[in-house]
Amino acid sequence: MRRLLAGLALVMVASQASAADTLRCGSQLISVGDRSSEVLQKCGEPVSRDVLGYKRSANRREEFQVEEWTYGPNGGMYQFLRFEGNRLRQITSKRGN
Predict the structure, then answer these.
(1) Helices (H), 1-82
(2) Using one digit for the tens of pLDDT, what is the confidence trace for 45-93?
(3) Angle CA(69)–CA(9)–CA(77) in degrees, nearest 5?
(4) Residue 80 · residue 68 · CB < 8 Å
(5) Beta strand segments in the chain, E
(6) Is 13 contained in some domain?
(7) What are phi and psi of 9, to 5 degrees?
(8) I need a surface site. Which of 34, 49, 76, 92 has the fewest CB within 10 A?
(9) pTM for the whole thing?
(10) Is the pLDDT of residue 34 over 60?
């Protein structure tokens, strides 16, 4: 019984949020590394845009903006796109409540 409950808990946690390298926007596909302008062209305007802060480059000579765009809900899922310096760095999906 304990093993079953532990397994169910893991499934629930895993289903809460998942990361991917690509996302389908209609008939278009976006990928980690795409420019924000490409994503905007393929997916349209997001539901929200949040500036999360700034990050320094590896050589510490410049800073760039970190932003999160939210799309959805689409089929009950929200997509969160994280941009660093106008490049898509992470795609995360989460089921809405």
Answers:
(1) 2-16, 36-43
(2) 999 999 999 998 888 788 999 999 999 998 899 999 999 999 999 999 9
(3) 25
(4) yes
(5) 17-20, 22-25, 28-31, 48-56, 63-74, 77-84, 87-95
(6) no
(7) -65, -40
(8) 76
(9) 0.76
(10) yes
